[in-house]
Amino acid sequence: REGGSSGVIINMEGALTARDRVGIQDFVLLDETTEAAFLSNLKKRFSKDLIYTYIGTLLVSVNPYKELDIYNKKQMDIYMGVNFFELPPHIYALADNAYHTMLTEFNNHFILISGESGAGKTEASKKILQYYAVSCPSTTLLNTVRDKMLMSNPVLEAFGNAKTLKNDNSSRFGKYMDIQFDSQGDAVGGHILNYLLEKSRVVHQNHGERNFHIFYQLVEGGSDDLLHQLGLERGCQHYNYLTQGQCPIVPSINDKNDWKTVKNALQIISFDETVIASVLHLGNVRFESDSKGHLLGVDAHRLQEGLTFRKIEAKKDQVLSPFTTDHAIYARDALAKAIYGQTFTWLVNRINESMENKDPSRKTVIGLLDIYGFEVFYVNSFEQFCINYCNEKLQQLFIELTLKSEQEEYEAEGIEWEPVQFFNNKIICDLIEEKHRGIISLLDEECLRPGDATDLTFLERLEEKMGNHPHFVTHKLADKMTRKTLERGDFRLLHYAGEVTYCVVGFLDKNNDLLYRNIKDLMCQSKNDIVKECFSSMDPDSRRRPETVVTQFKSSLQKLTEILVAKEAWYIRCLKSNESKQSGQFDEALIRHQVKYLGLMEHLRVRRAGFAYRRKYDVFLKRYKPLCPATWPHWRGVAADGVEVLAQHLGYLPDEYKMGRTKIFIRHPRTLFATEDAYEKCKHELATHIQAKYKGYRAKGEYRKQKEAATKIESCWRGTQARKEKEKRAWAVKVIKKFIKGYMTRGQAKSTDNSEYLAFVRQNYLNRLRNNLPKTVLDKTPWLTPPAVLTETSEMLRKLHYRLMVRKYVRGITPQKKAQFQMKLITSSVFKGKKDSYPQSVAHPFADTRISEEDINTRVIQMIRNERIKYCVPVIKYDRNGFKPRQRQLILTQTAVYVVEEAKIKQRVLYSSLKGISVSNLTDSTIVFHITREEPKQKGDLVVQCDHLFELLTKLCVIANKQNAINVVQGSINFEIQAGKGGAVDFSTGPEPMVYKAKNGHLMVVSWALSLLSHVSLRPTSTVIVKHITT
Ligand SMILES: Nc1ncnc2c1ncn2[C@@H]1O[C@H](COP(=O)(O)OP(=O)(O)O)[C@@H](O)[C@H]1O
Ligand SMILES: [Mg+2]
């Protein structure tokens, strides 16, 4: 029973992944198994249109009474072949799981669909059929089988369904349908078994209910021709059998349209509508002369006789005794029921024939059992008794199958079986069906007993035999309290699902279901094939009484049990959400009632018995191994040991789990939830971890690739470089060799050996020369020494270059500068190499004048204006007597030199009388003007000290043309103080320039020695501070 138990696990996984969405998807995982918790979960889900919930493999479905968009092709595709633990509960999941288990394990299955009338059983079975029709592989050949299977539905519904108070399309028979599959999973055949058609509906309907759909479809939808042929009139109102419930027209049913579908289907199995028509006619029989017997293919007269006389067999004679009216009506109704019932059976047989697969190869089947669930009405009769008996049997089967599979699993896993607390309903089954002692036996006995057996005598017999059975009560047996709830004609059974009180009225008649023999014989002689066939099969020849209804039912149930027991079970329990067929209404009381009568809590308890969850070691380990460092990422040993380590690590208490042979068993859902929660959390962490690893791996790979590429490129590049280098070296060797040879033969005449070298030398020299040329004439950069071959050229170039530079220089000279140079030239010609301070003066340009006209007294200017002032300079004049230094202005005009003190002209020396000018050869700046005196009174020679000695004297040369008058004297300079009286100036060098009157009466001028002067060479002579010492 691997399929069943693995299904449990699969469901649990689904519930685990989705348990937080809306409620819990699997009741097995509910924390507490109370009815309140159960209902609350159901309600929570129903409010979100989640009509399906699991109890293990069992599917609980709540009728939504509205179209939900969950039965389309897309949904089917989602569930196809997918392990449905991944997906929310669905009828497709169950259908698919059954189908795939069947294919893989090659065994038979059945899906039991139960529930109250109107709970959605028939819809469920249709959904499953549609799912198989779409999801199974198909070939054109097989399509016909599939079509027939799908087509059989409307036909059986037309004949077997009716409007009741609870359901507008209530199935009034039990149906078991086998779908046969070949090993490829193709649907290749089918077979239908029907149970307990509610024949009484043909002749009687309660208020608000209808007869079977087919009658209304025929009289509303049949063509005029057809109706005429059948002697029928259009409209239900003409027929007694159709109007008792007083609601022939129902808004939710379109009889006309339905007829079209059914008519097509009926043609395929060549059904003849006359049988249906005859039933309608029978309903109108009022026991006057009538001629409609021809429809049944029997003689009208004989039919009339059959319905009005009873054939009594007394010894060898047959006596006809007339009926009372009641008897006649009974006989008529019995015939109508029999005709309809037999026709229904015939129809089912025809459908079976058409779906039969004659191929002898082995097939597996999935059986669909759409059977009435527990029925509890205000008044419960024989039908309810049979139905509820059927449910007891199915519950028994369920208990057996489930417990057996559980127990077998425990045994196989080597786990000790712990008895489960649940109610075993075998005691009730026995109460009903036990041979000779059960209710059925007693009922049959009463039916067969000669004498005046009635429903009440039957009740008495029951009380006699069952008197002290704990599950049986009657008015008479009950205690005071209970008695109040019972009528005298009632008996009550305490079914596993609850108590049901049955009213015995009609039990015997319904069980007998008698048809008088003469009518049966008459029907066997019918010319209508269908009628004849139907009644012939009712063992007409046998004198034995036919089996009673309940016994037939019992044996068919027995057969059904045998069929089912050999198969894997799947369950669908349908619940009705409310009585008024309204969407969105969750009638808690009604649902609690159904939960109870469907035994869902029982079912849940059995499912949860012992251990709520079990899982194969490898699968458990595979899912949860990330939770323990010892098992992550790989467990190298046996899976079971890994699970044990994991369980220890997770802190499972010894009582919470058991280790089987191949599976771990976990007792409480909460243990598993805690594990699952941890897993959910860990999963994200792991995912990040794996992602990071993977990214790292990718990056590394990428890096390696790039590195390889880089190395490749590098080596190629190096190769190229090396080759180039080699070429270069070879070339260099050649060049160097040639160079050396050229060098060695450089002195020889030009030849192939040295021509290149020489060219190189030449070029090299020229290039170097270009970069090392003197920039200006004044630039003292030495001319680059040429190689021997270029000595001549170099010299030429040198000359050229200097000429060029001189030219440039000359061009750049201004007139002022030219004048300056001309003056400097004069200075040079007079002093160069003669006076020591000369070199220092060269760099200092001459000024036009040293005293601007503003600084000369205006009176002086007025006096000498005519002579034009050429040059002025401040001087120190030494008195002729005593050599006292005096600040004076020396003014050169066109004609004379003036010595001026403020506004006074102290002395005027005409150039013509200036006979000589003396300076020393040292670095001092003393000048002696020698003057020719025409008159004795005239002042003597002039001794001055002028900082601009060279400038002054050069100007004088230019203005007065006195070059030749200037003497540079070594030693002393003699001069005339006045006529006849001489004086002298002595010169010497010393550490400090000074001027004083020496003891010998001479003017002593001390100046820096040339060597010292160079020391202060930066200072122009003019700024040399002369220390005057006066005595
Ligand atoms: N899954 C469903 N989705 C929508 N409506 C449903 C569904 N199941 C049942 N019904 C509604 O309930 C009615 C009764 O369902 P049905 O299968 O005939 O009940 P049962 O066979 O149990 O007596 C249907 O005619 C339909 O209107
Ligand atoms: Mg139904």
From TrEMBL:
The UniProt annotation puts the region (Actin-binding) at 557-579
The record's subcellular location field reads:
Cytoplasm, Cell cortex
Q: Which UniProt keywords apply?
A: Actin-binding, ATP-binding, Motor protein, Myosin, Nucleotide-binding, Repeat
Q: Which residues form the TH1 domain?
A: 835-1009
Q: Name one GO biological process term.
A: actin filament organization
Task: Supply the name of the protein.
Answer: Myosin IHa
Record's keyword annotation contains DNA repair: no
Q: Which residues bind ATP?
A: 115-122
Q: Which family does it belong to?
A: Belongs to the TRAFAC class myosin-kinesin ATPase superfamily. Myosin family.
- InterPro entries per record: IQ_motif_EF-hand-BS, Kinesin_motor_dom_sf, Myosin_head_motor_dom-like, Myosin_TH1, MYSc_Myo1, P-loop_NTPase
Q: Any idea where the Myosin motor domain is?
A: 22-680
Organism, by scientific name, is Neolamprologus brichardi
* Source species, domain of life: Eukaryota
